[in-house]
Amino acid sequence: MSSTRSPSRKAPATEGRWPVWKLALLLYPFAAGTVAINLFLAGLIAHAVGYSALSPIASILWSLPLGIPATWAAGRWVRSLMDEADG
Q1: Alpha carbon distance 33, 68 (integer Å)
Q2: DSSP secondary structure letters along 29-75
Q3: Which residues contact 20 (CB under 8 A, 6 or more apart)?
Q4: pLDDT tens string 4-27
Q5: What is the pTM of this model?
């Protein structure tokens, strides 16, 4: 038996990179705010067509859970831009 280390040991591939979940945590307030604004404006459009309007508070409350997939998509997009910049 030799006392050398296994050649299969590598440094982690993500060393120095921001993972998507960290980017998503950073971007969540902005993405949820964007979702709230879009929901409110969609409610105004729906009101013009004949449906009931969506209040600003209801828009904010709906944006909290709906902001999660939007944040994940934004995080993946930012990660791809960062990877392209490293290129």
Answers
A1: 11
A2: HHHHHHHHHHHHHHHHHHHHHTSPPPPHHHHHHHHHHHHHHHHHHHH
A3: 72, 75, 76, 79
A4: 554 555 545 556 788 999 999 999
A5: 0.76
Tell me the two tokens of residue 52: 């009931």
What is the dihedral angle through the alpha carbons of 61, 66, 68, 70, rounded to the nearest 10 degrees? -130
Ramachandran angles phi, psi of 40, nearest 5°? -65, -45
Tokens found for residue 7: 């050649």
C-alpha torsion sign, points 65, 66, 69, 75: negative
Calculate ∠ Cα 29-32-38, nearest 5°.
140
Contact status, residue 11 vs residue 66, Cβ threshold 8 Å: no
